[in-house]
């Protein structure tokens, strides 16, 4: 594959020493120093743990970060792009290439059009444009566990329990500025004035209810983009008003870490936890505001729930678990259980839905591609190429091809410190995923998925 390691412009961090957050842009510099790779011993996902895991002690509370790099200038990109020349051929289906980083394991992805945002256990969120490094921004919090896009704003969820809000500069599209932190400093000070606003946390410590006291695991936006939801290993879900960053609610949702939340089906909120349950929360109007109420427990099992995804176009909810299974429910049939997708040998860590395709990433290093045809699911392919657990997925639909064939660009982030880029067609035939010319050493592996459907 073609390597474009030397084609990237050099960079320098632009920092404001009066702030704890920074932004940087691509700029030319005469220096050629390198950012050395940093290794982490945490190769196992906390999401794959059993319900007996003690979530009160986050494995990221005492990380061994190299603090000397918090404000170090970054004079050379730690990214290397490996993209096949045939990736511009729109009849091509398969592995297009890889984005390999030296900074750390990939924990979060978000895609919008030609932009890709990647978060890792470094302090940086990288921005890619057309698969080329474009820009980025950083904070002092370390691990970036969640990224979500809403209009011109980017929300990032971090290990320290805070949510950072970023926006592109109006003068330079390669510059990202931090415009806020949730909870805001003023809200935190105001709330801390009243003793009744404190809740008890682990080790007999107290904190104000508007702040997560453990790592944020995931973020989700309401369908009208007015509410932001954050879930945490502290077992709670918090509801934020997007317009002014006010924390409206704190929901004591589960008995263990909340690993995933997703909104769908006319405003229903679904939450999945290491306690083995999937719960439904309904939103109701109360005066000038809204409040969320528990509706029902959709699933209760021994193994941890690790990922959720909703396909709003067809009212399907998908749930991945630490046993490698993917359960699904049909929203237009009162959320009746539809069946189980069996495609992984180890924990399912992430899910994504687009069109009539569902993608599941796993600790077995593979990605299963499922096609829904009516109420039936067919496994089209197993994407093999990562050398570490697949931790996050993002999908973008390409322009529809002739004959109604829909093409999707799939980004997969892994603990092997790489992001792989795949082009997948909805017209793939099961066990014949290799269409056109594809890298034979990486894509695809033999199909080994099974589907257990509930017959009506």
From TrEMBL:
InterPro entries: JINGUBANG-like, WD40/YVTN_repeat-like_dom_sf, WD40_PAC1, WD40_repeat_dom_sf, WD40_rpt. The keyword Cell membrane does not apply. It comes from the Eukaryota. Residues 24-33, 41-58, 65-83 have a biased composition (Polar residues). The keyword Ion transport does not apply. It holds the Pfam family WD40. Keywords: Repeat, WD repeat. WD repeats lie at residues 209-250, 251-281, 298-330, 383-426. Residues 1-83, 432-456 are annotated as: Disordered. Gene3D superfamilies: YVTN repeat-like/Quinoprotein amine dehydrogenase (2.130.10.10). This is F-box and wd40 domain protein. It comes from Solanum tuberosum (Potato).
């Amino acid at each position: 594959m073609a390597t474009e390691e030397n084609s990237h412009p050099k960079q320098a961090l632009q920092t404001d020493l009066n702030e704890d957050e920074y932004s940087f842009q691509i700029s030319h510099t005469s220096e050629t120093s390198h950012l050395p790779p940093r290794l982490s011993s945490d190769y196992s996902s906390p999401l794959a743990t059993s319900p007996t895991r003690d979530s009160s002690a986050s494995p990221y509370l005492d990380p061994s970060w190299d603090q000397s790099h918090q404000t170090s200038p970054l004079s050379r990109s730690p990214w290397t792009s490996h993209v096949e020349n045939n990736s511009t051929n729109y009849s091509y289906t398969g592995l297009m290439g890889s984005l390999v980083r030296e900074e750390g394991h990939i924990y979060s992805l978000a895609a919008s059009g030609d932009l890709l945002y990647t978060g890792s256990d470094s302090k940086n969120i990288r921005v890619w444009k057309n698969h080329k490094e474009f820009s980025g921004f950083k904070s002092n919090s370390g691990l970036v566990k969640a990224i979500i896009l809403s209009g011109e704003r980017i929300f990032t969820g971090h290990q320290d329990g805070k949510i950072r809000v970023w926006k592109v500069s109006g003068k330079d599209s390669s510059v990202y500025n931090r415009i806020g932190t949730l909870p805001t400093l003023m809200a935190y000070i105001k709330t801390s004035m009243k003793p009744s606003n404190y809740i008890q946390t682990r080790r007999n410590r107290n904190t104000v209810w508007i702040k997560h006291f453990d790592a944020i695991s995931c973020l989700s936006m309401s369908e009208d983009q007015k509410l932001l939801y954050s879930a945490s290993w502290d077992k709670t879900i918090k509801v934020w008003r997007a317009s002014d960053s006010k924390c409206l609610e704190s929901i004591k949702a589960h008995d263990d870490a909340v690993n995933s939340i997703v909104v769908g089906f006319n405003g229903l909120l679904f939450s999945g936890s290491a306690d083995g349950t999937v719960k439904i929360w309904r939103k109701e109007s109360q005066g000038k505001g809204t409040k969320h109420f528990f509706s029902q427990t959709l699933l209760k099992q021994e193994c941890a729930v690790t990922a959720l995804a909703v396909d709003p176009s067809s009212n399907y909810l998908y749930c991945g678990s630490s046993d490698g299974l993917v359960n699904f429910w049909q929203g237009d049939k009162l959320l009746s259980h539809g069946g189980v997708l069996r495609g992984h040998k180890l924990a399912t860590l992430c899910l994504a839905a687009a069109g009539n395709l569902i993608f599941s990433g796993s600790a077995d290093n593979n990605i299963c591609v499922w096609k829904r045809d009516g109420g039936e699911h067919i496994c089209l392919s197993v994407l093999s190429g990562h050398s570490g657990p697949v931790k996050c997925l993002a999908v973008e639909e390409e322009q529809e091809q002739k004959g109604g064939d829909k093409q999707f660009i799939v980004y997969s982030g892994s603990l092997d410190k790489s992001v792989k880029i795949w082009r997948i067609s909805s017209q793939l035939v099961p066990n014949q995923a290799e269409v056109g010319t594809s890298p034979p050493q990486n894509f695809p592996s033999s199909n080994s998925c099974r589907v257990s459907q509930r017959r009506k």
